[in-house]
Every structure is written in C-alpha cells, then in structure tokens.
Write a structure and sequence with these properties.
Elements: E1 18-23, E2 26-31, H1 36-42, E3 68-69, E4 88-90, H2 94-108, H3 125-132, E5 159-161, H4 171-180, E6 186-188, E7 195-197, H5 214-218, E8 224-226, H6 227-232, E9 237-242, E10 251-257, E11 260-266, H7 279-283, E12 298-299, E13 308-309, H8 312-330, E14 335-337, E15 349-351
Parallel strand pairs: 1-4
Antiparallel strand pairs: 1-2, 3-4, 5-8, 6-7, 9-10, 10-11, 12-13, 14-15
C-alpha cells in the first residue's frame, strides 16, 4: 500500500445540488460548496498547495494554489474559492507558473537546504511542491534576516519541533484546534516574525499539548517529526490495521520498513476515528514487536500447568469443549469471558 493517501486539498461538501463548470477545458460537475481545488483534484488535476489539506478547513495562506478564473479579477486561491455554475478555470499557464515559482522561491530562501540529511526527505510536501512548480534556483541569499538558527525543541518524548524548517502554513495550529480541540498551539507575532508557538510556554512539554500527534500528521515539512522516523528513516510501505489499546477500534496505517513499524498514522477513512487518535495509539506501538508478545495460540488445562503452543484449530476446540463442560456442570450462565485487545491470553474460561 502507498505511504500517502490522495489529498483533495479541502474537505468534501455535503451538498446534494451539483454545479457545472469547466476546468482546463474539461467539463466538471461538483457538489455546491466544493472548492475549485477539490473539484480539480477529482478529475486528476493536482493544483500545487502547501497550507491546504482535506482534513482541515481551507485557509488560503500559502498562495501557491492560485488559479485564473474567466471574468474574475486577480488570481484567487483555489482552496478558498467555491465552484459556481458556468465557471471557467485555468490551473496552469505561464503567468500562474511564474507566480508559483516566485512564492516557492520565497519559502526556500528562508529554509535549510539540507534535504539529503533531512528526516522528511522522500516524504516532504515542500520538496514535492518545489519540484511541481519547477523551481530550479533561488536568487535570494542567506545574508539577511532568517530563521535558520531557531533552536530545536525535543522536550516531547514522541516528536521533535524544528522551527527553522517551519513555513508558517498554520496546519499544525489548525489541526490542534479543529481536530483535537486542545488549542495548545498558536501563531505568535506578525509578518516576518510570525512563528508557531506552544501557547505561552517555550517548550511543548510545558504546554497543554496532549501528544495526540495531529500537528505532526498535518505538518508538510520536517518541522514536526516523529522521533521514530528520525531514528529509523522513512518507512517503505503501509498496512491498514486496528489499534490494539482499547475497544474503540481506531483504524491506523502502520507505516513500516520490512516487518518493523516505523510509525502509526491514523487512517482518515477509519469509521471509528476519522483520521485522528490518542497518544497511545499514535506513539505507543512498541508492544507490536516486543519479544514478550504472544503470537501463537496457547492452552493449558490447569493454572498449575505451563502453557503450550498449539494450532488455532486445537485452541478453538479446547475452548469450546471447556465451555460445554462447565455449562453442563454449573449451568449456561456459569461461563464468563475476561479479555482485552492487549490481553496476554487470548482466551480463558472462569467459573463464576
């Protein structure tokens, strides 16, 4: 399975009325309220973006997704522009390409050029967008003011915060607000002095952060990165699985290198969690490969006997026969089950 799901840029509209428009000469029908960006993505036209993601409300700050609309003034952001009947949109021409390269050049002029050693290398949206807009050189040097020496915050045990790589897209701030509802992050300062800040505190661990990982998942660069990825490198493939901590049944993408879990990312198509998680499911996955974890069925006839490995058929047959034996002796309500998604024993019968 691919590591990255398709991102439509903005959330889907719940409207039932369809609007007809034209994008790059293609006729498109989209629900009323759909953004131009999402309508384009629906037919395979990927408009460059950085601040936009379909798990958050549109924000329109990066200005990379500008388009040209017939009869409209200027170059509106496609993420915050809703479709309208008869609209004609151009997503790519020389002028738009020039604007996007200029915007991207400004981002890169205040960003470390350490892609080869960056923990996000190979899975970085900033890197991808620089390639998508055709940026090949940056005319501005590092002699002026910049943020390249901003101190790194590694106080959180699960992820690191490297502000020198922040592009102030506010995706982390919005994720903390819209997804988690903790409001632990904010944008501090104005203009060039704007920066992501953990509230009134200097470090993440001193703030109201609950380590849910929503900010890390939303970050398009290596500004917020799981320490497991920093240590082990980028994962190679993903497997859909279910969190084993509680009975909610949150769906996750286990991103792996071979058989080693590198990180757990909430599955945005999960019906129980809709792309979000708690700190346990997101970061405490060490038990998955712990040497004490039981991976084969085991049975015993008495608590005084040692456990022995058996086949699934024998284990199920043993449990069924014990249920029948106890019920025949003590009645049908004499059998109860005690288990857990992380229970050390997969099945054991008790007489109540």
């Amino acid at each position: 399975m691919a590591l990255r799901d398709k991102d439509y840029g903005t959330p889907a509209s719940a409207a039932t009325r369809l609007v007809n428009l034209e994008i790059d000469g293609f006729r498109v029908s989209a629900p009323e309220g759909t953004s131009v960006m999402r309508a384009a993505a629906g037919i395979g036209i990927e408009i460059p973006k950085l601040c936009a993601t379909d798990s958050l409300d549109p924000f329109g700050s990066c200005r990379l997704c500008v388009v040209q609309i017939e009869g409209a003034r200027g170059y509106p952001a496609s993420c915050t522009t809703p479709v309208s009947e008869g609209m004609k949109v151009c997503t790519q021409n020389d002028k738009l390409a020039q604007i996007r390269r200029g915007v991207m050049e400004l981002y890169i002029s205040d960003h470390p050029l350490d892609c080869l050693t960056c923990s996000a290398n190979g899975n970085c949206e900033l890197q991808d967008m620089a390639g998508a807009v055709g940026l090949r050189e940056v005319r501005y040097g590092y002699d002026g003011s910049n943020h390249l020496k901003a101190p790194k915050d590694e106080s959180n045990p699960y992820f690191a915060f490297e502000p020198s790589k922040c592009i102030v897209c506010s995706r982390c701030v919005r994720a903390c607000e819209e997804v988690q509802g903790t409001f632990a992050l904010t944008l501090d300062g104005r203009g060039f002095d704007s920066k992501v800040s953990p509230g009134q505190m200097e470090k993440f661990m001193d703030s109201e952060c609950v380590s849910c990982g929503a900010c890390v998942q939303a970050c398009p660069t290596a500004t917020l990165m799981e320490k497991s990825v920093v240590e082990r490198g980028q994962p190679e493939h993903a497997v859909i699985t279910t969190c084993a901590y509680c009975g909610v049944g949150c769906s996750f993408r286990a991103e792996m290198k071979g058989s080693e879990v590198v990180r757990m990312v909430p599955n945005k198509d999960g019906h129980a969690n809709h792309g979000h998680s708690c700190v346990k499911g997101r970061f405490a996955f060490g038990y998955a490969t712990h040497p004490d974890r039981i991976t084969k069925p085991m049975i015993r006839s008495s608590i005084h006997e040692p456990w022995r490995e058996v086949s699934w058929e024998e284990a199920i047959s043993h449990a069924a026969s014990e249920f029948r034996r106890i019920q025949s002796k003590y009645g049908r309500y004499s059998v109860g089950g005690i288990t857990s998604s992380r229970c050390r024993l997969w099945s054991e019968a008790y007489v109540w």
